[in-house]
Amino acid sequence: MRKYSYFFFIVILLFTSFVYSQKKTLQAIRIDSKIIIDGKFDETAWQNAPVAKNFVEIFPDNGKPIPENKDTEVKIVYTDEAIYVAALLHDDDPSKIMSEFTLRDNFATADHFGVFFNGYNDGQQEFRFFVSAAGVQQDCIYTENTDEDFTWDAIWESKVRITDKGWVVEMKIPLAALRFPEAEKQIWGLNFYREPRQSRSQNTWSLISNEINNESIQAGILEGIENIKTPTRLFLIPYASTYLTGNATQKTTGEVRGGLDIKYGLSDAFTLDAILVPDFGQVRFDNVILNLTAFEQQFTENRPFFTEGTDLFNKGNLFYSRRIGEVPFYEVADNETVLDNPGAIRLINAAKVSGRTKSGLGVGVLNAVTENTSVTIRNEDTGETRTMQIAPVSNYNITVLDQRFRKNSSIAFVNTNVIRNGSFRDANVSGLVWDLNTKSNSFNISGDFKYSYVNEEPNLEDKQGISSYFNFGKTKGKYRFSTGGVYVSQDYDINDLGINFQTHYHGLYLNQSYRILNPTKLFNSFSVNFNNYLEFDNRTGMLQQFNIRSGVDLTTKKNDYFGFGIRARPVSVADFYEPRSINEEKFVMYPGRIGGFIYFSSNFNRKFAIDLNPFVTKFFDQGWLNYGFTINPRYRFSDKFSLVYNFYYDRINNDVGWIAFDENDNTIFARRKRITIENTIQGKFSVNETMNFNLNLRHYWSYAVNNDILTLQDDGSLLPNYDFTTNRNRNLNLWNLDFSYVWWFTPGSQVTVLYRNNSQLFSRDFSREFGSNFNDAINSQNLNHIFSISVRYFIDYNSIKNSRLSKTFTKPKEKVHF
């Protein structure tokens, strides 16, 4: 009898293991009747559809079943044109459902429901569609490398209603918004997401365990979709804009622009995006700063064409899209004035093709052309003018081949190429990038090898360089770590279509972290991390960086976020970049330092919430001290109206940095005082889920006053200089205001009315009073004004075709319940 007990025990064990290893599955059913997206579920098509339920919590208590009074029930049906989703989100107190109105793709403080589709079921890429209890849509493409990319926008329908049982969601997602293979029977990856905002918890249908990083491989399965074809994906978006510009010294002028965006599905996997005569006049302003470093300021990309669906092009970090149509850099003599300085090099056209085959091969090609740009320069002594070419006609191209396999790994080849007309320099960069994970997602090996070639201008030697890094890490469980190294050669240069700052160095790092996976009596989440980085100059072996950082991050039971940490550099290091010497031959020795920070972010569910972040760093040198804070209060007056204010203060006493070269080519530094004050206000008033008024305001003031002049020595030390008397103080005073009205009058189509004013003032002699600088920034004599109206209209080829060929059959409606 005993052996039979063992036998039954083994059978039960194997059966249990088999059951728990199976993924959740939902059957979709085909329908022929019409569904109206009204959030009522009164079509007969919903009656017999299978139900997905038994959601689990993924945060804070990962894996905990959801109580019945908060359960979610979801059904899916489909036609040859679209996927339909109906969700009933139970809530025992519907009066507490949060439903703040906001701009599209902004979650704000509202309950949310989402559906995740992976047409290839490869655990690599998901198309995610969310809608809030206020009816505001969010959509994104999720990949493990780029996480959620909300710059991607699809055209789909949704409707929500709050009921006495909770709230309901009805969605229509066209097949044209998804990607799937040509197959008679489709098997898709599927997950559902619910966020009851009041508790700040997050729930999914198929558990996403926080023990591992990859989310999409943990999705469930959608079956039942058969005999569908990839629809013709042809979308045309014509637009027209008008602009009025003027200032105190320039007569108001008008300009009318027009163009066309095209999206065309070349196959079931690949899409062509093209812009003809682009117009980026309404994109958000850049947060320019007083940059005293040896490196250029890196800006965020705000132009939709270069942000939508660009996850492939970010492989290897070789693509910095702001190079295309960038602000030109050139120098003129002290006695010369530029008469027609262009704000940016004009983009003539751009196109990209991207997609992924059913075998997991991702292909991306982006090409853009910019125009020849010249400026007129006047000699103030003679009155004569001359024309200087600052940028030729240029072609920018990036090509990516990314092979995914085993649902969690990839190897990619990336190439960027810039060809400029005439004798200007050309450049080519190639890279091999790998990201390999074990089957259980417990360990990761990643890295790259990149090669750059620059064909310089005539009489300059061509440059060739390499860069490579290797990483090994534990990526699962409470304790995780990563360790690796990086090597960059002297002539590695990707700055024609990418961005890199330092070269000729190698470095080593070790990162460690520990976290709780489920809440405790005190915390909803808790993690501690330790990071260590060493960097050396390749040529001399001198230490360039020795950074140590340790921090704690936690969430309280009331969903307030808190953290603190220390940062240290225990020894002096050599900086080869700050002296601005040719080939970074000179260096300056900078002292060690130690500092700390604290941050606090209260629960945004409250009408009044606040973020606070004080910091301080003490350098081991002559009173060199950096301290400051950020305070960020916000108030939600109603679900339609809110204001967010941000104040940033940063002060550095006895900072040491480069300021000039003297007439004898000595490198001049200064010990200086730096103060930065930044005020921003963001305001939003939503008429409804498709109509918003938005305010973005920024005043930035930063100055540096040089107190002690110093001369750099060959050994990296600094000696007093009493001969250099040129004023190299700096004061940057910026003002930006955008006030806009946005109306999405039909899916994909919008009207935007924008009023913008701005000023940018730089000076060597200036007042150190905040009030004086603020008044100068908003003085009408210094402001530039822009008023613009833009209309974009979305045209779907399938809608036109169906409206002409289809017939509408009206059937009696029958009320149906889940």
Care to describe what's here?
- The protein is mainly beta and 818 residues long.
- Helices cover 5% and strands 53% of the residues.
- The chain contains three helices and 45 strands.
- It has a 24-stranded antiparallel barrel.
- Strand 42 and strand 43 (749-763) form a beta hairpin.
Beta strands, count: 45
Using only C-alpha atoms, the radius of gyration works out to: 29 Å
Q: What would you call the structural class? A: mainly beta
Strand % is: over 45%
Mean pLDDT over the residues = 91
What is the end-to-end distance? 48 Å
Largest sheet: 24 strands, antiparallel, barrel
Global outline: globular
Number of helices: 3
**Percent range of helical residues:** under 10%
Q: Unreliable runs, pLDDT <50, ≥5 residues?
A: 1-21, 805-817
Please tag this protein with its features:
single chain, 818 residues, mainly beta, 24-stranded antiparallel barrel, 9-stranded mixed β-sheet, 45 strands, 5% helix, globular, disordered C terminus
Outline the secondary-structure elements.
Layout (H helix, E strand, L loop, with lengths): L1 H20 L3 E3 L1 E2 L25 E4 L12 E7 L3 E9 L21 E7 L6 E8 L4 E7 L3 E3 L7 E7 L2 E9 L10 E11 L6 E3 L15 E7 L7 E14 L2 E16 L4 E7 L59 E3 L8 E10 L4 E10 L2 E7 L5 E7 L2 E12 L3 E12 L5 E12 L5 E13 L7 E12 L4 E10 L16 E11 L7 E15 L5 E14 L4 E9 L3 E3 L12 E3 L2 E9 L6 E12 L5 E12 L4 E21 L5 E22 L2 E22 L5 E3 L9 E17 L2 E15 L6 H9 L5 E9 L2 E2 H9 L13
